[in-house]
Specification:
Elements: E1 8-15, H1 27-41, E2 46-52, E3 55-62, H2 68-86, E4 100-104, H3 109-117, H4 119-122, H5 128-138, H6 145-148
Antiparallel strand pairs: 1-3, 1-4, 2-3
Helix pairs in contact: 1-2
Length: about 150
């Protein structure tokens, strides 16, 4: 086979350090657009980006040219630096060290897109920690509670 072909939908989730609620308007939409721009530059085409005051969700097509770990390194480093320039109150903006990344069945992309679009409503009833533990359970990811949060 002479051509390399791939189509991997990835749902990425990560929070601010210590889940500090720092993502508010007017920077929330700007941040999501900025994250999308970084993904595009790395050929990881964003489908939906959203989140809440303490975390973000990115649904994208993972490029065959970059490792997931490198995508996250670039996204988190550049967006953290960018957020710090937006306002004095964001000078201590940091992302948590870790992240969650889950493969998405192409038939489920619309469901995940809608889920990300409804984050504000969703989090009126559920914390990020409860949501994240639910993802870990749903995808059968073994974890140690002592090391999930920073």
């Amino acid at each position: 086979m002479g051509q390399s072909l791939a189509k991997n939908y990835i749902h990425i989730v990560f929070s601010t350090k210590h889940r500090t609620p720092l993502i508010y308007p007017p920077y929330e939409e700007e941040l999501h657009a900025y994250l999308g721009g970084i993904c595009k530059q790395l050929e990881c085409y964003p489908i939906k980006i959203g989140g809440y005051t303490d975390h973000v969700h990115i649904l994208c097509l993972l490029s065959k040219k970059i490792a997931l770990m490198n995508l996250l390194e670039e996204v988190k480093a550049h967006s953290s630096k960018w957020m710090k320039t937006k306002d004095e109150s964001l000078k201590n903006f940091y992302w948590q060290y870790g992240y969650g990344a889950f493969s998405v069945n192409p038939a489920q992309v619309d469901i995940v897109t809608a889920y990300i679009a409804n984050q504000h409503e969703h989090h009126s009833k559920k914390t990020f920690q409860v949501e994240y533990r639910g993802f870990l359970k749903k995808y059968g990811v073994a974890y140690d509670e002592r090391y999930v949060w920073d």
